[in-house]
Known about the structure:
By secondary structure, chain A is mainly alpha-helical. Chain A has helices at 6-14, 17-42, 46-66, 70-88, 96-120, 128-134, 142-171, 173-178, 183-205, 210-224, 228-252, 258-284. Chain B starts with 6 loop residues before the first helix and ends in a 13-residue tail after the last helix.
Amino acid sequence: MLALAPFAGIGHFLGQEFTRNAALAGGAIAVAAGMVGYFLVVRAQVFTGDALGHAAFTGALAALAAGLDVHVGLFAGTILVALLLGALGPRGRADDVVIGSVFAWLLGLGVLFLSLYTTSSSTGDSRAGITVLFGSIFGLSGHATVLAVLTCLGVVLVLTGIARPLLFASFDEAVASARGIPVRALGTALLVLVAVTAAEAAPAVGALQLLGLLTGPAATALLLTRRPFRALALSGAVALVEVWLGLALAYAAPSLPPTFAIMAVIVAGYGAARVANRAGRRAEV
Amino acid sequence: MLGTLPGPLALASPHLSWNVVADVRDMFRYPFMVNAFRAGTAVAVLSAVVGWFMVLRRQAFVGHTLAIVGFPGAAAAAWLGAPPALGYFAACLLCALVIAALSGRGAGGDDRGEPAIIGLAQAAALATGYLFISLYHGNLEGTNALLFGSFLGVTTGQVVALTVVAVVCVAAVATIGRPLMFASIDPGTALARGIPVGALSVGFLLLLGAAAAGASQITGSLLVFALLVLPPATARRFTLRPGLGIVLAVALGLTVTWVGLTLAYYTTYPIGFWVTSLAFGLYVVVHAVHAVAHRGRHRPLPEVAP
Lengths: 285, 306
C-alpha cells in the first residue's frame, strides 16, 4: 500500500512520534558516524571503531547491571576504551593484536554483566543484551532523541573545527608532525569523537552494526571522489540518505528489522558506487 | 543449543571443595561436561595453531570477521532446521573465499578501502543474522548462545565433527607450515623463489575460517578471539621460534579452555566471561612481566610486512 502512494506513506511515517524520533535521531547519528567514519577509513583505524562499538555494549550492560542510566555506561565505556587505545599504541594507533585482545575481553565482560543483569535483578530483561547489540531505533524516547541530536551536532562541529589539521596528520603524519601539528593529540581527539558517536549510535542501530555505519558510507564516498573535504561531506550526506532510506524500508516492510534494512541499503549503496567507479574509470581510459 | 540455562546445573548443584580430584570426578560424572571438555580441547588446539599464523600475518581483523560471519550462518541453520555446526562451517568457509577473491582482485590497486570492506561485510553479516533470528522467532537464550557460546548440550556427533576438523586442519597447517611461514614473513622473496604465495594465502584464509567456525561452537561468534588471538599473542612474548611458539600457544589455549569450563561449571557466570578473562589476564600478566624485566633495553618484535 505504501509503495503505491509514496507521499501519503511519508506523511504517515512522519505523523507518528516513534518514527519521527527515529528519523531525527537516526539522521543525526548518521551524519556524525559518516563523518568520523571517513577519518577512521583513511587512517586505517576501522578495527578501532569496531572495538569502540563493543565497548558500548559492555558499558551499557554494566550500567544496567549496576542500576544506572544506560547513557552513563555507554559514554563511560566508550570514552575510557578510546583513551586506553589511544594511550596503548604508538602515535595514538594501537596494534591490531592489542585491539583484538582488549575487545575480546570487553565482550567477555559484557557477557558477565548480561548474566548478572538477567539473573540477579527482578526487573532484569533477557532482551536487554539483544537490544543493545542489535539496536531498537523505533524504540527511542523523545528525551533520547533530543540528546542524540545535540550530541551528534556537537561531534560534527568539533570534527569540522579540527578537520584541516586532522586531514593533514592523517595523510602525511611525518610532515604534519614536523610542522608542529599535535599529531598524537589529534588522533586521541578523533578516537574520543568516535567514542561519543558510538555511545549515541549503539542504542539506535546496535553496538554490532555500528561498524557498518562508520565504514560503509565512508568507503562509498571514497569511491566517488578523491578530494578530502568533499569526501568528508559526502560521507556524512551518504550516511544520512542511507539511514533514512533504511528506516523507510523497515517501516514499509515491518518484518525487516530496521538495522537490517539500514545495512542492506548501505551495502547496496557501496555496490552501486563501486559499479559507478569502474564505469567512470573505463570512460577515462 | 542452550544458553546459560540453570537446568542440569541446578540438578547437579555443584560446589567446589578443596579436594580437586573429587571435584573433577564429580564434574565428569555428567556426559555433557565430558563432551564439553572433548569439544573444547579440539577447538583450543585448532585455534591456537591457526591463530599463531594469524597473529604472525597480522590478519586479526579478518579472523574476527570470519568468526562473526558464523553467526548468520548458524542463525540461518536454526531457521531452516539444519544443525548449527553446518551453518557455522558453510558461512565461515564461504566468507573466507569471498574475502580471498575480493582482496586478490584489489591487489596492486587502492587497498586503503579494504579494511572498510571487511568492516562493512561484518556489519552486514550481523544484521543478516539478526534478520534470520527475527524470522525464526526463536528464543533469545538461543541467540545469546550463538553470540556468546554455551558448553551445555554439546552432542557426541558435534565432538566427532570438531575433532575431525581439528585433525584435518592441523595436518594441513603442518604440511604447508614451512612455505606459509616464509610467505608470511617475506612475501616478495618467497614469490621470487617460486612459492605460490597467493594460493597459500587463500588456503590459510580457509583454515582460518574452519578454525573460527569450530571455535564459534564453544565460545560463540563474538568470543572466538579469546582462543584465536590471545594464546598465540601471549606465546609470542615468550618465544618467536615457530615450533616452540605453537606448542606454547596450544598449551595456553588448553589451559584457558579447561580452567574456563571448570569455573563455568562451578559458578553461575558464563563460559564466555571466564575464557576471555583468563586468556586476557594471562596476556596482560605476561606483557607486564616482560615490560618490567626488559626495562631499559627495548627489543621490539620483528616487523612483518603487511
